[in-house]
Amino acid sequence: MYVDWPEQEHKAHPPKYETHRCRIYDARPVADQFDLATHGFAFARIPSKIKDFYDKDEVERVYNEEVVTIIKDAIGASKVVVFDHTFRTLNDAILEANNTREPVKAVHNDYTDRSARQRLRDIMGDEKAEELLKKRFAIVQTWRPINQPVFTEPFALADGRTIPNSGFVALERRYSHRIAETYHISYDPNHVFYYLSGMTPEETYIFKVYDSDKEAGVPFTGHTAFDDPTSPQGAPPRESVESRALAFF
After folding, report:
1. What distances in angstroms separate CA 111 from CA 140, 212, 246, one per listed residue?
2. 189 Cβ partners below 8 Å, 6+ apart?
3. Residue 120 contacts by C-beta under 8 Å, 6 or more apart in sequence?
4. Could you tell me which of 14, 108, 155, 222 has the fewest CB atoms within 10 Å of its CB?
5. Are 52 and 64 contacting, i.e. CB atoms less than 8 angstroms apart?
């Protein structure tokens, strides 16, 4: 898969997917019963103080620290380094005006065993990475709506207890400056997904996409946007931000 390359490169190397109907449960009645070790994810109500998520300086000044606190509290890390924010929408005007991408409707996990270690090296440098790789580290993400509640293309997470150790397909993502690798996850009727209906900007998901300690519970969290048949007619396109961070222990 080519990312941030000319359009002809995207069209020349399209990934192939299958479409399946899945049962996705609204987690609102039991939202406080999920945790990262058992399920791979958790839900939280944590309003942000940020005024404009499309203001890069404000994101770095305000939101980075908020994400650090959220992840430390969720997973018990001693240090958290935020390294990336991705904004997504199907609003054409926002796509044109800001550095945003469309929602991804394919069940995936952002890192593999190989690419997680490489991302640590990319962010921390080879010398520091050699020491950090000797200890436990995780890559943790947060996701939240921005500007308005989400009613279209909502975001669902797979209960890690329902994903076996098979069906993970490594897929290269070729950027102009580096090659990354993600896991795309094959369909299994036993997968169980959850989401928060009508999720608001005051709410956030926290989920693991890698954990070097295989005894620390679920290491990967499959996730995807999906077509919700209950979406109100005429609901505005989703706007969201997902943030990625290294967590050290």
Report:
1. 10, 12, 12
2. none
3. 129, 132, 133, 137, 246
4. 14
5. no
Query: Quick one: fold of 14-248?
Result: Jelly Rolls (2.60.120)
> What 3-state class would DSSP assign to 238?
coil
User: pLDDT for 111-169, tens place per residue?
Assistant: 999 999 999 999 999 999 999 999 999 999 999 999 999 999 999 999 999 998 888 99
Alpha helix stretches (DSSP H) within the chain: 7-12, 36-39, 56-58, 64-75, 92-97, 113-124, 126-132
The predicted-structure confidence for 47-105, as pLDDT tens digits, reads as follows 999 999 999 999 999 999 999 999 999 999 999 999 999 999 999 999 888 879 999 99
Q: CB 204: neighbour CB atoms within 10 A? A: 25
Torsion angles phi and psi, residue 66, rounded to 5: -65, -40
Please state, in angstroms and rounded to a whole number, the distance separating the CA atoms of residues 182 and 184: 6
